[in-house]
Structure formats: structure tokens, C-alpha cells
Amino acid sequence: MKNKAKKTLGALLLATLLLAAVALPTGAKPGDNIMQRAKLYQSTGYINDEEQDVFLFDGDYDTKWCATIGDARYPTSELKRLAQEGFIHILAVDFGEEKYFDSYRLYLASTGARDYGITSYNATAWKIQISSDGAIWKEVSRVTDCWDEEIVTVNIGVRKARYLRILVDEPEQSGGKTVRLYELEVFECEPGELATGVVRTNGSNVKAEAKETEAAKAQEAELLEGEEPEESEDIELGYMPSEAIEYEGYELGIGGAIGIVVLAAIAAAISVLASHRAKKEQLY
Ligand SMILES: [Ca+2]
């Protein structure tokens, strides 16, 4: 009886541990910045080793991707065509697998250490495209006339893709052609009905509250009073506004739910063991 109980408990624990090992890391975590694990897929270049393209997604708000028009290279016919259309600085990343995401946040020049406060260096127009194969790209966000904001957060609806790229056509408020971007974050979301249109804004279409102080919030509320938030012009069926960018830290997703089940199973196993011991003690 004792051995049987031990075996049962052992099998139960092994099964729960295996389940935890397999299931937990793969659960979607809404609000996670998936750029942190992305790899550079393609870029048109950078100015020097201290301001590389990969610094656009290194998690450091004071390191930047910088490139003048003279640094830009267009090795493929597609990149040449895009450059002729005005998209002179392009950077693409590979998430390694298809991911669901619903918003992104871009930190413009004036937010970072090397250009702090210099708003004339801020980009005013860009677009974001996504792809499943790295070859065929679909536009999901178009920002133009972004004159006021330094950190731009755009909700693009639920999207699914392995690749994402930013194409900058107006890299400076001053009209210059040098791109200076400190960080691009892309936020994971739960799988859902996919949005299909292009979100067109002149900056953020959601309020980014996570890092604001109470004073800044009050000031913004005053400024925004009576003002309608920027809305997408032609986003189509499937657009589901998400709260992903407001998530701070851990949000219970599939992984979290499985975690709870695993803990419950362990608790049940301990209970079974305790019960067996109690019965055994009663025999003496
Ligand atoms: Ca950076």
C-alpha cells in the first residue's frame, strides 16, 4: 500500500512537472515586448558602431539607431523601389515564429540621451509593415504629421506575423534625412480575430499610462479635455482595441492558467500522501 501510494504520487508529480516544463514557456503573455527576443532581419544601414540598427530594439532607451541618407544601402530591387518612394530608412526584424501582437511604441530622438530634448530630430512620418514569410509585406500602421509626440503608441488591432519592419520617410521635423530612433517595442497579445485595415494616425491612438507620474497624468487630462482621441480612418472588421499596453508586469494568460492547475495538482498529491500516512498511522 505504501509503495503503491509512493508510485502514484511520483507519477503524478512527474506528469505535472513535465506539463509545467512544456506548457509554461509557450503561453502568450499579453503586454510582453516581443522585440526583446527578435533578431535583425534586414536594415538599410547605420552610421557607426555606437549607433547601430540593432540598438532600435536592445531594451535600452538611451541607445539609438542612427543613419544618414549617405549610410543607406538598398541591396534588393524592393528596397530600391521603396527608397524611390521616399522610404529611405528601413529596418526589419524576425520574431522567430508567428506571434500575435496588437500595439507598438516608438521612442523618437528627443527622448534619448544623445539627442535629449532636440525635437527637430524627431521623425514625423513612417509606416509599419508585417509579413509571414519575410517577402510579402502588409501595411498595418501609417503615421504622418507627428509633430507633437516624442513617444508614440499605436494600437493596430490584433495582428499575426513572424516579421515586422519600420519604414521611415520623414526622419526629421527639420526636413533632414537622418533617422534617430531610440527604441521600438511591439506588444504581444492573446490570439483573437485579426484586424485587416491600416491604422492611420498622426501619433498615438491610445494613452500610454504605464510610466506616467500622477502630475503628468493630470496635465495631460487638462490638455486633452474636450479633445477626441485620434482614431483610425479605415481600420476594418476585426479591430479589437486592446489593453495590452496598459498591462504592467504579469498578466494571467494560458501559461498562467496552466500554472495554477499544476499547483492545484501538486497540492492534491500532497493531500493524497498525507491521507495515506494518516491511515497508516491509524493502523498502529
Ligand atoms: Ca535602444
Account of the protein in words:
The protein is of the alpha+beta class and 284 residues long. The protein folds into two domains: 59 residues; 221 residues, Jelly Rolls. It is built from four helices and eight strands. Strands 1, 2, 3, 4, 5, 6, 7 and 8 form an eight-stranded mixed sheet that branches. α1 packs antiparallel against α4. The structure holds calcium ion (CA). The site of calcium ion (CA) has 7 residues, from β7.
Summarize this structure as a short list of keywords or feature phrases.
284 residues, alpha+beta, Jelly Rolls, 2 domains, eight-stranded mixed beta sheet, 4 helices
The CATH topology annotation of the largest domain reads as: Jelly Rolls
- End-to-end separation in angstroms reads 15 Å
CATH-defined superfamily of the largest domain: Galactose-binding domain-like
By DSSP (H or I, 4+ residues per run), the number of helices equals 4
Please tell me what the overall shape is: elongated
Task: Please describe the biggest sheet, giving its number of strands, its sense, and whether it closes into a barrel.
Answer: 8 strands, mixed
Overall pLDDT, averaged? 81
What's the structural domain tally?
2
Sequence of secondary-structure elements: HEEHEEEEEEHH
Q: Which CATH architecture of the largest domain would you pick? A: Sandwich
Radius of gyration: 24 Å
